[in-house]
Amino acid sequence: MNNGTLFETVLASTVHDMKNSLSLLLGQLDSLTEKLQDDDESTLAISTLRYETSRVNLSLMQLLTLYKVDHGQFSVRKVEVEVIEFLEDCIASHEQLAKMKNIHLQMNCDDDLIWFFDPDLIGIAINNVIGNSIRYTKAKVCLTARVLQGQLNIEITDDGNGYPEEMLASPEDFINRISYRTGSTGLGLFFAAVVSENHQKDDLKGHIQLDNKAPQGGGRFQIYIP
Questions:
Q1: Using alpha carbons only, how large is the chain's radius of gyration in Å?
Q2: pLDDT tens digits, one per residue of 36-92
Q3: Which whole-number Å values give the CA distances from 32 to 22, 57, 91, in the listed order?
Q4: Helix crossing, 83-92 with 119-136: angle to 10°?
Q5: What range defines the domain where residue 15 resides?
Q6: How many separate domains does the chain show?
Q7: Residues 141/155, Cβ–Cβ less than 8 Å
Q8: Last residue of a domain, which of 12, 40, 70?
Q9: What is the maximal distance between C-alpha atoms in the chain?
Q10: Which end of the chain is more exposed for a tag (fewer CB within 10 A), N or C?
Q11: How does pLDDT run across 108-167, given as a tens digit for each residue?
């Protein structure tokens, strides 16, 4: 084993351990929130701490997944998913902070919409976008799921200032455009692009789209899953 391989192995192991520790911390923060739910100031502080901890945890999960992709250890686990329940679970983890920041989370999805995809991987991608939308929106974040052109389309829009120009690039360029300014947003978009592309059916391959054409005037993220 050369030094480069050894470093990558140690790094992957360290990221895994850090991810597990943060997951335990998130659980403790949830318990603390329940105990202090009548104290608005403490609840806001804990919600903010939980949000930032969750962001770090998501970044570590993304890095670990991308490591597996690069080393041929990656696989997609497709299962039948009730999309409305999937989106409700995604929103639930952000509701407390959104409420404390007076941000409205809206969802549009048919009750009977069912699709086959990996809920863990797609969940990481969606939660990352929701978290960033809450961070940069003014008052509203909207999730919409429907079938477009034979693929599941999940759209997340907000009423913020939109994505910076350097983020409005083709998916393969996201990794080259990650900087201190784009931060975890760039990593999250690259992760979403990789995960979506690994969802394939016949000749169709998943993909993401990014623009600033949200009805509310802000950014719009779309992921397509065949």
A1: 18
A2: 666 666 766 777 777 777 777 777 777 878 888 887 878 899 999 999 999 999 999
A3: 15, 19, 20
A4: 50
A5: 3-70
A6: 2
A7: no
A8: 70
A9: 56
A10: N
A11: 999 999 999 999 999 999 998 998 899 899 999 999 999 999 999 999 999 999 988 777
Tokens of 77: 């686990």
Residue with tokens 């394939």: 200
- Supply 184's token pair: 């975890």
Residue tagged 């997951």 (tokens): 23
